[in-house]
Amino acid sequence: MVKKPYQLVWTKRSEKNMFSIYKYISKDSPQNAAKVINAIVTAVEKATGNPEIYAPDKYKRNNDGSYRAFEKYHYRLTYRFSKTIIRVLRVRHTSMEPKDY
Predict the structure, then answer these.
(1) With contact defined as beta carbons under 8 Å apart, do 44 and 88 qualify?
(2) How do residues 50-81 score in pLDDT, each as one tens digit?
(3) What is the helix (H) or strand (E) element at residue 68, kind and residue range?
């Protein structure tokens, strides 16, 4: 039986985060901004085939294993998966203090 890929959903917060990242990097180089955004999107799309590809989020209290996180170009992306959906929750620079959630 072939497993269907998970649907990828970006929250409004994560979309705003990505737009802010693009805007900030593009001040110096629009090409690098596009490169970083594309790399982050490609990395999270890998999880649609197997949402457990990345490690559990070490900053999430009482994590049942459904909250995952990874870093790409000094940005930390956090997502949560359920039966059929991967929801991208937040994209933050690694120099920022992690928020409790």
Answers:
(1) yes
(2) 999 999 999 888 999 999 999 999 999 999 99
(3) strand 67-72
